[in-house]
């Protein structure tokens, strides 16, 4: 691949352009907002000048509702040898493109499973896709050259290709991406009118659950509008679980012993099912999740503290597998959990204590 055209210079389009440009591809940028394309160009993502000849690959990075029209228009103008999109919904755009008379042989629907709470070109990074799954949804009609160009794009972005059926993809992202966004927003919405004293008690748990609630509402309206059925199906199942959980909690308030036992059983069931589901989430390097133990350390909120504790762990010969930080309310300090292999806990604890760190049990 020598040349590419990125249509849509938001977070995903600009990040792909930065990755391609950084690996020697001449990238042309266009957007319905020329100022946004100029911003992406100024960041080093390519040039906002139109290509003189057809490029090797056109990457359509627009909201799902506009993918089919953008691909059909680009194909009519003969802008590229191959065309793909990077929207988070795949089945609908493909069917819409066919209805518009687009060429399915030169088009491939893809979806990089990467993103941030922020949007726009200024949020883009060349390494956004590194190590992340990038779904490809070829059909029997897909031209081999287009599939090869898509695979080259994934490789240049250092992502991991995953081949799926388009509709199976849409059902999957409804479960692992779209529904979690709504649930995060629903929990965060409970905080809007909450008493200030309650909000001050927020800890790491509520921060974890509501992190993605900071996402752009307009962007998510576009996404959910393109995949409403599968998302509604998952939410209906969640709603059924919620109804059963509410019933179980009410039973715990009962004076009747049998009702309370039923309530305990219901709550235990949903928690155990949650344990089982969580264990299926891929862990480090996409492997089955490993069992780590944590060493919890008090750390000051000042420059250099994180670097110092990581360096001390390194000197102890311990690999940090994961990190969690919980900030202390109203204090210039917090707790950092260093996730390590169980056998490394004693040596790491001893080494950190020797270097003056305050270990919390």
Our Rg estimate from Cα atoms comes to: 24 Å
CATH class of the largest domain: Alpha Beta
Spans of at least 5 consecutive residues whose pLDDT stays below 50 are none
Number of helices: 13
For the sheet with most strands, the description reads: 7 strands, mixed
Fourth-tier CATH superfamily name of the largest domain = NAD(P)-binding Rossmann-like Domain
**What number of domains?**
3
Oligomeric assembly: single chain
Strand content: 15-25%
**Could you tell me how far the N terminus lies from the C terminus, measured between alpha carbons in angstroms?**
54 Å
What is the general shape?
globular
Helices and strands: which structural class? alpha/beta
> What fraction, in percent, of the residue positions are helical?
40-55%
